[in-house]
Design a protein that fits this description.
Length: about 400
């Protein structure tokens, strides 16, 4: 079972300095306690923030730029802490590893739950859920970490009330950790930010070898763009191009590259942390069903309203130039030029251009106390660096 860390509201503005001051102490305490010499562990980090806007349940909006920036900032802190504490961050890394996932939870300080409130799964047209839905669908836990601060305790007590009856917890499973700077953030802090139009079909691509925090940020950012439809409507689609094995034969330490099937499966299992909702939780709920057709993997979530497709790609374009009905393309700083190339190809076909969204890069700057080079940090958490460590470990 995974463990849970409840993080209270982010600072406003949520720049890297402020995020590090707020979140690095509890993340450090939690990650170091979960480091085990005999096995790897899993951690879900639930970040409470009043992120959704809109009067009606099916008309929710949010600022994608602010949301993905917050997720990027937290994954940056995770990567820095794990590097400092010699904790592996990639999936299935074995002993001394923590597989951490950041989940945004829509919850404001003014949100009140009466004594007779019964938590239930409430969906909206985004993948972001409220605290009551999170408490209903996310369980059981190994340990629950909460921040020892006024805001942290308020969030923790509300969560326990909403999760009551879902799991029998002992006192040993409830672990307080020191918080960082406690900053009073008003609800709707980002109300003035430009709201993002979500999309029915979102696409991105990558190798996703030894899935790590950089991959998790990219996949989360793409999922945030999905416009989850009403029940009974055709599903929204998240199409993920996963580089085929043939294209990776010349990679450094190629013998340690995971197979396409392993990489695609890990992508879907990671996304299940964000997309799968069941009132029975994950231990007793339905397992993630992955179907295979024509060498590609498909999985459905939220009663079939969200469909994830992992397709095998053998070139730089993948499905973006073979499927006309794609709305958005998500890129990283490294693949920024690919967005223009894709739209040039689509223009040649007479197709509409894709809306291109660029995700922040993970950055060590302002998270540590000493200056550093972003390029050096990026190389430390890359798939090639992970393969090199595994190759070195095999030789030792």
């Amino acid at each position: 079972m995974p463990s849970l860390l409840l993080l209270p509201f982010p600072p406003d503005p949520a720049d890297s300095h402020a995020l590090a001051a707020s979140y690095k102490p509890p993340l450090t305490a939690t990650l170091t306690q979960l480091k085990r010499p005999d096995r790897g562990t899993k951690l879900i980090i639930a970040v409470a923030c009043p992120i959704l806007h809109g009067q009606f349940r099916r008309c929710k909006t949010f600022s994608w730029a602010e949301a993905q920036s917050l997720v990027a900032g937290i994954y940056s802190i995770i990567a820095v802490v794990c590097s400092q504490q010699s904790i592996a961050t990639d999936v299935d890394a074995g002993p001394n590893s923590v597989d951490a996932t950041v989940v945004l939870v829509d919850h404001g300080r003014s949100k009140r739950f009466t004594g007779d409130f019964k938590p239930a799964i409430e969906s909206n047209n985004t993948i972001i859920v409220d605290l009551a839905t999170f408490a209903t669908a996310y369980h059981p836990w190994d340990l629950i970490f909460h921040v020892r601060s006024e805001l942290g305790l308020a969030l923790y007590q509300t969560y326990l009330r909403l999760a009551e009856g879902r799991q029998k917890l002992t006192q040993d499973q409830l672990v307080p950790v020191e918080g960082g700077l406690s900053i009073n953030v008003p609800d709707n802090a980002s109300k003035g930010a430009a709201q993002t139009e979500t999309c029915s079909v979102v696409c991105l691509g990558g190798t996703f070898d030894h899935l790590h925090p950089g991959h998790k940020l990219l996949l989360t950012a793409g999922a945030l763009l999905l416009k989850v439809p009403e029940e009974g409507s055709p599903p929204c689609k998240y199409i993920i191009g996963v580089t085929g094995d043939e294209m990776l034969k010349n990679k450094k330490y190629a013998e340690f590259v995971e197979s396409w099937e392993t990489r695609a499966r890990n992508v879907i299992l990671f996304l299940a942390n964000l997309l799968q909702l069941s009132p029975r939780g994950w231990k007793h709920g339905a397992a993630v069903g992955i179907s295979e057709a024509d060498g590609n993997f498909t999985a459905s979530f939220r009663d079939g309203l969200v469909q994830v497709e992992c397709v095998r790609i053998q070139d730089a374009y993948g499905p973006t130039i073979t499927l006309e009905g794609i709305d958005a393309l998500v890129v990283s700083g490294e693949t920024r030029s690919g967005g223009k190339a894709v739209n040039d190809k689509r223009a040649e076909k007479g197709w509409k251009p894709l809306v291109v969204f660029e995700v922040d890069v993970l950055n060590e700057e302002d998270v540590t106390d000493k200056p550093t080079k972003t390029e050096d940090f990026a190389s430390k958490i890359s798939s090639s660096a992970i393969r090199e460590r595994r190759a070195t470990a095999k030789l030792s």
